[in-house]
Amino acid sequence: MIAHGVPVIFRPVEGHATGQIGYVLGDSADGVAVVIDPPAGETELILALLTESGLRLVMVLRTHVHANDTGNCAALCERTGAVLVSGETARNGSDAVRRVGHGDVLTFGGQVIRVLATPGHTPDCVSYLWHDRLMCGDTFDLGSCSAEGSEANPAELYDSLTRHIFPLPDQVLVFPAHAMKARRVAMLAELRARLTPVLARGRDAFITEMASRQRSGSAGSGSSRAY
Ligand SMILES: [Zn+2]
């Protein structure tokens, strides 16, 4: 992949135990990388990928942290010297965290990552926009949007979708933290078209729709995921 004349690396890493998908983003010219939502149990694989590619890890980015989080970011940070980055209210269990909020910009090598506040799936959710790729955590499940679980807030999700995500260009590629029905990427235009009918009915109708899906356990995807 070449972005703005600079060779970059984009490698999804899927956790065998959890199905969680993390993403390694690398700047080959400067030999640095970041990883977004590294899956639990895949630390060695990520370190091997970095070594193979000649990249030094400088940041570990979290889109969100659940109360029952099983992520193993501490080991990855300790072994690489990378800085842990998370949303302003995320419970990381550590003080060594760089907090980010909407509009913040992260850089590594010649690369720029924009931070979008996207609460809804959990209160602390942020998404990371890098070139044409949006790593959104569990904001979308690629079949609908993710308002499941006790930490979900449909009202916040409505605001995140309408104010921060859907104003992005159609061609943005959305990469979730979990595959849904074997899908691992979608164009934003597709997700917008899928959700426009319910969003167009207004904020209150969206909240009602998501609440009914939560009660039925369907959430548009048949999933009862709690992570
Ligand atoms: Zn989640």
Please give a quick description of this structure.
The chain is an alpha/beta fold and about 230 residues long. It is built from five helices and 13 strands.
CATH arch. level architecture? 4-Layer Sandwich
Query: Which strand order spans the largest sheet, edge to edge or round the barrel?
Result: 1-2-3-4-5-6-7
Number of continuous helical runs = 5
What is the highest CATH level, the class?
Answer: Alpha Beta
Rg from alpha-carbon coordinates: 17 Å
- End-to-end distance: 31 Å
Number of individual domains: 1
Judging from the principal axes of the Cα atoms, what is the shape? globular
What percentage of residues falls in helices of 4 or more residues? 25-40%
Percent of residues in β-strands: 25-35%
Bound molecules: zinc ion
Mean pLDDT over the full residue set:
87
Count of distinct strands:
13
**CATH homologous superfamily - what is it?**
Ribonuclease Z/Hydroxyacylglutathione hydrolase-like
Poorly predicted runs are: 218-227
CATH topology: Metallo-beta-lactamase, Chain A
Structure overview:
- Residues 19-178 form the Metallo-beta-lactamase domain.
- It comes from Parazoarcus communis.
- One of its GO terms (molecular function) is hydrolase activity.
- Keywords: Hydrolase, Metal-binding.
- This is MBL fold metallo-hydrolase.
- This protein has 227 residues and is an alpha/beta fold.
- The chain has one domain: Metallo-beta-lactamase, Chain A (4-Layer Sandwich).
- 25% of the residues lie in helices and 27% in strands.
- The protein has five helices and 13 strands.
- The chain has helices spanning 43-53, 73-80, 154-165, 188-199, 203-216, and strands at residues 2-3, 6-14, 21-27, 32-36, 56-61, 83-87, 97-100, 105-108, 111-117, 126-130, 133-135, 173-175, 186-187.
- The strands form two sheets. A seven-stranded mixed beta sheet has the order 1-2-3-4-5-6-7, with helices on one face.
- Strand 8 (105-108) and strand 9 form a beta hairpin.
- The chain starts with a strand and ends in an 11-residue tail after the last helix.
- The model is unreliable at 218-227 (pLDDT under 50).
- Zinc ion binds at residues 64, 66, 121, 138, 227.
